[in-house]
Specification:
4 helices, 17% strand, elongated, 77 residues, alpha+beta
Length: 77
């Protein structure tokens, strides 16, 4: 099984490198710890979300037309 390196604070995964492994903020991890999605059971890979993740984007407010006219006159635009 391959050995990878994980940064303690950032969580980023690196391929094993002797010089990088000597850094105090880096720890050795196994491939299963680095990439758990590769070792998930087949039942877990095909699961669908049970929650409706669709979102509705509201229309932006149109504002006050009188106020908009007044502001454009004041700025000279």
């Amino acid at each position: 099984m391959a050995i990878y390196l994980r940064h303690k604070r950032k969580g980023t995964i690196y391929s094993y490198n002797q010089y990088l492994a000597e850094h105090p903020d880096v720890v050795e991890v196994t491939e299963e710890e680095a990439f758990p999605e590769r070792f998930a059971p087949k039942e877990a890979k095909g699961r669908k979300a049970k929650v409706d993740l669709s979102t509705v984007v509201p229309e932006p407010p149109t504002g006050n037309s009188d106020l908009n006219e007044e502001l454009t006159k004041a700025t000279g635009a």
